[in-house]
Amino acid sequence: MKAVKAAVIHKRGALEIRTFPKPVLNDEELLVKVHMCGICGSDQHIFRGDWGEPYPIIPGHEFVGTVEELGKNAAQKHGVKLGDKVAVEMILPCGACRWCKEGFYNLCVKDREEGRQYGCNISCTREPHLFGGWSQVLYVPSNAIVHRIPDHVPWHRAVLTEPLAVTVRAVHLTPPKLGDTVAVIGAGPIGLLTAVAAKAAGAAAVILIGTRDERLALGKQLGADEVIDFRKEDAGSRLLELTGGRGADLVFETAGTPQAQKDSLNYARKGGTVNYLGLTGNRPVTIETDNQMTFKELKLQTSFLSAWGYQGAIDLIASGRFPIEKMVTHEFALDEAEQALQCASNREEKAIKVVLIP
Fold it and tell me: Are 225 and 207 in contact (CB under 8 A)?
């Protein structure tokens, strides 16, 4: 393969297929043949230009594939060999700034200065161009963090590594204690996978709050003990009923809407914890801090990206404990990238997780 095909968002709301030269590797670099890449809510924000994206950009950060080519020392550097199934962490940390050295490499200073997130904030004008998963091939530099995926794991499970890693990080930051009731706000892919991670971490009960019958039903298969459709009943009242009038010990907000972030504070018990995973696309959130937080002595945590979450996600996926592959409802070829994005954005045909197969 001398030329590599990729889907490119070249301006706000516009996508096209382009070809790029296959990169020539330095000693500690490698190339990954992308087998599957999920479409995320962040991709929809990027398509709309919500965050001032550096167009043109190859989107896609939920990618998995196989090692196709290795630089002279890359196998030793990254602990992989040709043909291995791999996931590459979506951030390329500098390793030298204060935040990287303190373990917060998801907050790397260089990410803010120049863009270090695959598929999110690296323009494809930056050589060697292939910094997104909506491509046949992914370029992996020496500072990338590469994880092997066990051979027995099918692609439809493996493709959920990055979003599950996001939820594993969140659960690591605010782990449930013995006997805790966890409420998860939002029944999208991140919400469903948060239910998985919370249950795997030992939550006594997981209550999933969202909409759409098919998503809530799947949530029950993925670890939720109770589900609440807030369009059919008052979620706050039902949650109090399920918790003996206390509220949830721990609330994970994954929906990324201002209303969900506000409501999540009401769902937590006095002295409880709320963790925001959802991104609002810079929409403002109005919170009554006295009544919703201070008078309840709530603890508020946020969680960003997936640092330190990949290996736990891979282990959980490889265990086969939860049937997460049922989340993958739609597949599209790379040439159908815009159609795939529309399917995910509009939730066409009860779509949950839409994937591209480059």
Answer: yes
Q: Max CA-CA distance within the chain?
A: 64
CB 136 within 8 A of CB 34: yes
pTM for this prediction? 0.96
Same domain, 317 and 261: no
Q: What is the pLDDT of residue 52?
A: 87
pLDDT in tens, 11-55: 999 999 999 999 999 999 999 999 999 999 899 999 999 888 999
Q: Are 86 and 66 in contact (CB under 8 A)?
A: yes
Task: Report the relative pairing of strands 353-357 and 30-38 from DSSP bridges.
Answer: antiparallel
Q: Are residues 73 and 153 in the same domain?
A: yes
Strand ranges of the sheet holding 226-229, from the earlier edge strand across to the other edge: 226-229, 205-210, 181-185, 248-253, 268-276, 299-302
Number of domains the chain is built from: 2
User: Quick one: pLDDT at residue 335?
Assistant: 97
Weakly modelled stretches of the chain, pLDDT under 50? none
The CATH number of residue 257's host domain is 3.40.50.720
Is there a domain that residue 169 lies in?
Answer: no
pLDDT of 1 reads 63
Domain of residue 59, residue span: 3-162+307-357
The reply to whether 170 falls in a domain is no
In terms of domains, do 134 and 97 share one? yes
Q: Output DSSP code: residue 106.
A: G
Strand 30-38 and strand 137-140: pairing? antiparallel
